[in-house]
Amino acid sequence: MPKRRLTRLLLLASLPVLAGCETAGYYAQSIGGHLALLRAARPVPELLADPATPADLRERLQRSQQMRDFAVRELALPDNASYRRYAALDRPAVVWNVAAAPPYSLELRRWCFPVAGCVGYRGYFDRAAAEAEAARLREAEGLETVVLPVPAYSTLGKLPGDWFADPLPSTLIRWPEPELARLIFHELAHQRLYLGGDTAFNESYATAVERLGGARWLAAEAGAEARAADAAFEARREAFRALVARYRAQLDVLYRTGGPTARLAADKARLYAALRAEHAALRDGAWGGDRRYDAWFARANNALLGLQAAYFGWVPAFEALFAREGRDFARFHAAVEALAGLPPAEREATLRALMPPEPAAPLTP
User: Number of H helices and number of E strands within the chain?
Assistant: First the structure.
């Protein structure tokens, strides 16, 4: 049977299950988009041997495969066919994720899927479809929404055969080397371990792997100049995360305390205004006019802050667990697997116990 037809049958077979919680139309676009991505993919060795492959692309592809090998050898991540093929796309993102939250809560609206369980976002291969869904959620459900471009995603290694493995998309191939390595490590971490229904656990674990693995990659594979440049970049990003986390905590307290809607609205507006003002002061002062986060702060809302928490909320706990396991990745993954097997309340209590004390002041670069 042709591979394309087999893929379609494997994916369509899940539609009767999926239709119970979402529309068939959404899954049709998901299946079609993923099939198109697979059809666009070519084996990296084939591209490396092709004299028509541009020299700069050839160099990046070679580096990507070194990162892929490093992930297996040094980070105990899956040794499979994922990211061994390259897909040239004609768009700036692979998918666009929609996230949504109520006006006075940071709890993300959740969508439920087979395998992945319930997650706090929904992906679309077409940006216009994502924007339409975001508009519907605002108008029909009164939610705050955000649409974010996603440069890569993982199918969690659940589809059989090398041809079905996740390819390396052109949307990220020209990223700075440390960022490319980190993203590959992040997506492979999802294939190493995924706990259905717990977005914060999954994304924080994968983010911890990308950070820890990225640091090990830089130490082993990058020169002093590259390490210094990345350290400056990471310090600025840590300052951004700390700033957002501080205001997210204040908003969470506000929403959980409750009170008259008019007062909540006024206090919420004050906190968001202060968040944007503090970023502007940091940007124009210590950051020397770096405007890379301007768009993020311009659209900051409950959905965006809730999504940020999902990706970074438990990262310090996972990093502490890594240190406890002697900075050994195989032991670390095993400890995370044990953690994933705990009942939800016990798992959260264990993560909270691993969290370091809150800093007295926000980090600055």
Answer: 15, 8
